[in-house]
Amino acid sequence: MRTDSPQTASPQGPRKASPQTIVIWTVVALVCAAGWSVLALSRGEEVSAVWMVAAALGSYAIAYRFYSKFIAYKVLKVDKTRATPAERLNNGIDFHPTDRRVLLGHHFAAIAGAGPLVGPVLAAQMGYLPGTIWIIVGVIFAGAVQDMVVLFFSTRRDGRSLGQMAREEIGPFGGAAALLAAFAIMIILLGVLALVIVNALAQSPWGTFSIAMTIPIALLMGFYLRVLRPGRVSEVSLIGVGLLLLALVAGRWVAESSWADTFTLAPSTLVIWLVAYGFIASILPVWMLLAPRDYLSTFMKIGTIALLAIGVVVAMPTLKMDPVTDFATRGDGPVFAGSLFPFVFITIACGALSGFHSLISSGTTPKMIQKETQVRMIGYGSMLMESSVAVMALIAASIIDPGLYFAMNAPAGVIGDTVQNASQVVGSWGYQISPEDLAAAAKNVEEASLLSRTGGAPTLAIGVSEIFSEVTGGSLRAFWYHFAIMFEALFILTALDAGTRVGRFMLQDTLGNLYKPFKNVSWKPGLVITSGIVCGLWGYFLWVGVHEPLGGINQLFPIFGISNQLLAAVALAVCTTLLVKSGRLKWAWITGIPLAWDATVTLTASWQKVFSSDPRVGFFKQRSVYQDGIDRGELIAPAKSMDDMHTIVTNSTVDGVLSAVLALLIVIVIADATRVCIRHIRRPALSTLSESPYVESKIVAPAGLFPTKEEKEEERDAVGAAPGG
User: Fold this and answer.
1) Residue 387: which of 709, 33, 640, 147 has the closest Cα?
2) What is the pLDDT of residue 113?
3) Looking at residues 116-124, what average pLDDT do you find?
4) CA distance 456 to 348
5) Residue in 648, 510, 471 with CA at minimum distance from that of residue 175
6) What is the value of pTM for the model shown?
7) What is the DSSP string of 98-144?
8) What pLDDT shows up at residue 304?
9) Which residues contact 521 (CB under 8 A, 6 or more apart)?
């Protein structure tokens, strides 16, 4: 069944490029090529981080201008005359046509969490070159494509979720596997997001105070817009940003005052506070806390990344990490175990391809988008913005001393808890740094210690402070470090509280099949019960990570990356199936090739994490080694007690079982999707599409950030044709 519109829109028809346009794009291509050439060919000489920025921004510009336009108008055939769900089903609550600029900010804030900040920092263990290649190439051909195509197909289906589309287009069996996998993966992602915050704020009164103050600031902003001054967005923006900077400055005062002990929290205490926060944020009205925090964090995210890019161009820092390290081939890195393939792709996660994004692209965004033609800017464009965050994170990790990098990211059980011992261990890996330099690095940012500050966030903050202090002076190094910590925590909290709410919706929808009142998301008993279950589940993974003797982030981030990429496989499988069933078989390679690559990488990683005979990689082998040690009554480093030994055995078992189950679910989804595609190719008459019927749109709105000449004329004509115009 086809439900195409009477005519499909094209991008203003074919136009001959002007000489000025040709010159501009030639310059962009040459700068981009120069950046890639320097990064790829330099060996032994100093390389400026500016070349990484040039390669990234040039690649993004070319991909957005040409590849995304080809997919949007040639493959998907986006139609500006077709009404979106926001227009047809507008109820002012869930469905509401939203200005493209506002929606771009919302979508970016929703998708950008810990992944693009943390993954590239951890992947720097392999060197800066592998990560750079995957972040840029991966986002252009996989991540941004997934986000845009999912958004398009969800928009054509009244904003249906990824799981619902899987059930309708693939079938109940594959759909059930997709729904179960999506919820389980969401829980794991939230647990690791929270762990990054804990590792960043533990024993840091400055950071803890500043982040704590963002909660009352967000509440004030919510009440200001809702009660005090409705609609005064500019006013509340200035108030929010001003109070945010005041909280950052005040954090330093608190850290130097008698209140320091009050805000110096142990990791276990932070776990309790974060779980409590997640629960409360999930049940409060969205306008009260979630929306203003989301809005506030968007300013911080976009502004900080833009300033960071400018800082790199002005300061021109040198990349100190090797292009490719020995750990890439040996697979025995202290930050995470495993060889370059497949684990560098798994570790980078969100910066190049993120399954989590598919939940947003088939969640709130398709219910708010004004025109189909905007899926290119919002879907593809937002993912390029997130990838730029990942590039900046990789730069920040690569410009600091490699010895400091490994001292910060290796577990305490490996390098010890003194600068002398850490210096010796890091030196044995071939990266020299003195105890005095390690102590000075901590003193410069006013921290007691930087040893084993795993999770990536503190390392990124050190890199950010290095870049900004080159521009503003070394006396502000500590300020910029804690500014970066607050920036990262805000980044992640946005995804944490929004993710908890999405997880609650998913659980309510599932339980609603057993007990109908759960279907009503505003039913208070169901709201409280499901919020408690979701917070309890991700809180378990957070508690495990905090008390993991092998280093929580080192143990859990591979699970995080694998889960996220497995969810991406589900999204790409659904997209490929829909391309085939909607008569776009010749273009199925656009999502089919990324699906094949993602499935190969992710299932290989899953296999190794389950069955590898190396205890540093394989969960069950790790479990066996430590269980044998328990049976012999022998302690195995880095465990310091028998309780640690039992903890490692339990965690390894849980992680191994999860890896195996999730991989099996994704294999089921891909196999069922393949069956449906083959059946359609052989007997297309048997296929049905759940696409909504065509309704002509009454809204006139630009496709991009800035309206074209033709779009301005359309808007003028629409205003003139309006009653009283």
Assistant:
1) 147
2) 72
3) 88
4) 11
5) 510
6) 0.86
7) B-HHHHHHHHHHHH-SSHHHHHHHHHGGG-HHHHHHHHHHHIIIIIH
8) 79
9) 504, 505, 508, 527
